[in-house]
Amino acid sequence: MTEVVAIDHLTKRFGKFQALKNITFTIHPGEVFGFIGPNGAGKSTTIRILLGNLKATSGQATIFGQSVWTDAVAIHKRIAYVPGDVDLWPNLTGGEIVDLLLKLSGQKHTARTDELIKKFDLDVAKKARTYSKGNRQKVALVAAFSTDAELYIFDEPTSGLDPLMEEVFQQEVLALKAAGKSILLSSHILSEVERMCDRIGIIRQGEIIEVGSLASMRKLSRSTIHVQTKQPLTAIAGLPAVHQFKAESDTKAEFAVDSEAVGSVMEQLSSLEIVQLQSTPPTLEDLFLRYYNKEGEADATQHV
C-alpha cells in the first residue's frame, strides 16, 4: 500500500532551537491520522513543512510520492487545508470568500456547498470583518469540505467553534473517511481524535513518542477498577499489576490495573465474591496525560 503522506527522519531548526527531531510517520489511503500534542510541541511546524511553507533542515517528506518542497504546486491541487486561525479578506462577504477559495482550488460552488453553509449555520451575506473567530473557521471549513480532494489537512480546525458545530465537523470528517479520503487531523480535543482517528501520533518537544492505533496504545496503559467484595481485598493491593490502590474499607476499593493483566486480576477478585464491579478502560486523555505528566515520565518509558 502506497502511503499518501510519508515523513522520514524530518528535522527542523530555527537557529539554535531544534523544533523537530527525527519525525517519522506515514498516513495510508483512506486513513484518519490524529496528530496530538500541546502548543509548541511541533505539530504546526510539521504541517507547514508538509504544505511547502517551510523547508526542512534534514530528512524527507512526501505527499502522493512527491516532494513537499519541490512539488508543492502539484500537491496543492490535490489537497484541502484548514488552519487553526483563518485570516480572511475583510471587505468580502463570507459567500464571496467561499467561492474565491473554491475557484483557487479549481472547484465550483455546488449544491454540496449550499448544504454545508446550512449545516455550519454560516451567514454568507456578512462581510468578513464582522466575523468572529468561529465564523472565520466556518468559512474555511465550508470551502474545504466542498473541495473534492485526496488529502485533507486540518490544523486545530474547530478552534472557536461551539460544541454543536464541532459535532457537524466530526460528522463531515467521518463522511470523508467513509468515502475513502485521507485525513491528517491535528487537534486539542481528545474526544474528537478518539472518535474519528484510525491511528494517532503523539508529539512532545519536537519528537514523536508514540504512533499506533488507540487499541494498541491502550494495551500499554491501565484500566481503573471500582470494586466491592464480600471478602477482604488485602491481597489485591500487593499484586504487581495493581497500582494506586485506595481502600474505602476492607472490602471496597479503587485501583488501577495494567490493561494486559485485567483478566488475571478479575479471576482473583471473583474468588473474593464480587458484590459490585466497575471497570473503566483507559481513554485517549489518560494516555495523553501519561505522556505529558513530567512526574510520570519514568513510568511512560517503562510502561508500568
Automatic annotation (TrEMBL):
UniProt-listed Gene3D superfamilies: P-loop containing nucleotide triphosphate hydrolases (3.40.50.300)
GO molecular-function term, one example from the UniProt record: ATP binding
Coiled coil region boundaries: none
SUPFAM superfamilies listed in its UniProt record: P-loop containing nucleoside triphosphate hydrolases
Keywords: ATP-binding, Nucleotide-binding, Transport
Membrane-spanning ranges: none
Domain ABC transporter: 5-230
InterPro entries reported in the protein's UniProt record: AAA+_ATPase, ABC_transporter-like_ATP-bd, ABC_transporter-like_CS, ABC_transporter_ATP-binding, P-loop_NTPase
UniProt record similarity statement: Belongs to the ABC transporter superfamily.
Protein name: ATP-binding cassette domain-containing protein
Organism for this UniProt entry: Lacticaseibacillus suilingensis
Organism lineage string: Bacteria, Bacillati, Bacillota, Bacilli, Lactobacillales
